[in-house]
DNA sequence: CTTTAAAATGTTATATTATTACATACTGTT
DNA sequence: AACAGTATGTAATAATATAACATTTTAAAG
């Protein structure tokens, strides 16, 4: 019959790359990740991209599309990357995941006029963070 | 004094590239654009990217971040690219600009908890379009 | 404990997307 | 005519991402 595979644990490369992203205070790009994990034996881009793809798929990380960079998911409530929202400071480049249940519900229920059925959305807000506003 | 420059007309390259994008039924990528405009004398990537940057800046086109592709703005009411929303079919790749005043207002007024001031947002919905749902 | 399908890995090469840097020309105001 | 801002042309290269193929690991099922 169809086999069941474990869903919780990460593979070696996935774990290495997730740990790095999770510890990072800022979004990491694929080649920055590659640079840092070379000492751990991950030597080539496909290894990085494969792990990233998988981590995105299972919702452990998100891709910030406007920056081609990746952050760990801090919410447990963005159900497997179906509903993501980020705030991005245009000056200091700080990125935060916006977790607002109302917003998330509002967008998840949104139906467009042309009859599309939405499975997923990604929202990116741009502006100035608290600190950068002052300066 | 500070000079005033014209704000309405596009330069030659900008016009060529805008026309191409505007006529296209689908988002166009930079190198696809480059291919099509070579017969008009635009030969190198920087020429394309510069025109694209400018057209985005003045709100004549938008970038679909998840696809690295560009579409013409069909709304006159997304005030200079400050508030953009798109629906993207995951099967046929069709992209439409979502113009929903309520949604736009809701998101423009959204304030996050960390005190950021938002100037702009981009929202991308993914799912299946009407036609692809049937198949 | 062996077989097996799925998942993950390793590796080389290459494709795609985007920018730097610098020289030149055009545009419209003063 | 002088100028400042904008746009253009061009070559080179940087940054991001995938294709293709061989091999190995994982863990469920027999």
Describe the protein in words.
Two copies of one chain form a homodimer. Chain A is built from five helices and six strands, in the order H-E-H-H-E-E-E-E-H-E-H. Chain A is an alpha+beta fold. The first copy, chain A, has a single domain (12-134), classed as Orthogonal Bundle (Arc Repressor Mutant, subunit A). The longest helix of chain A is centred in the middle third of the chain and has 13 residues, at 45-57. The N and C termini of chain A lie far apart (63 Å). The structure holds a DNA duplex (30 and 30 nucleotides).
Could you outline the blueprint of secondary structure elements for this entry?
Two copies of one chain form a homodimer.
Chain A lengths: L11 H12 L4 E2 H8 L7 H13 L3 E4 L4 E4 L10 E7 L5 E3 L3 H8 L8 E12 L1 H5 L1
Parallel strand pairs in A: 4-6
Antiparallel strand pairs in A: 1-3, 2-3, 4-5
Helix pairs in contact in A: 1-3, 2-3
Chain A binds a DNA duplex (30 and 30 nucleotides) through helix 1 and helix 3.
Shape of chain A: globular
- Which sequence of SSEs, written as H and E, runs from N to C of chain A? HEHHEEEEHEH
* Strand order within the widest beta sheet of chain A: 1-3-2
Q: How much beta of chain A, percentage-wise?
A: 15-25%
Poorly predicted runs of chain A are none
Index terms:
34% helix, 6 strands, alpha+beta, DNA-binding, Arc Repressor Mutant, subunit A, 135 residues, homodimer, 3-stranded mixed sheet
